[in-house]
Design goal:
about 80 residues, 3 helices
Length: about 80
């Protein structure tokens, strides 16, 4: 019977090595916090009667800043 010898370790691609890392970086958390602060400020302004700037802030927080915080990824240099 033929013995199986040890094979050389296969190269791990960047995608495989990045699977174990955290999905968000510090920039993502900062953007998320900025979005939350914008939303909170928008609700306080809405409660105070500022019906022109408050909806703009709320839409910016919910539809722009928070999605950017979720989607944003720092570009990493490609290695060959």
């Amino acid at each position: 019977m033929k013995k199986k010898g040890k094979t050389a370790p296969e190269k791990i691609s960047q995608k495989e090595s990045a699977e174990g890392t955290a999905p968000f970086s510090v920039i993502n958390y900062i953007l998320f916090a900025a979005g939350l602060l914008d939303i909170i400020a928008g609700w306080f302004l809405l409660r105070g009667g500022h019906i022109t700037i408050a909806p703009v802030m709320l839409i910016a927080g919910y539809c722009v800043i928070i999605p950017i915080a979720i989607i944003f990824r720092k570009k990493q240099p490609e290695t060959v």
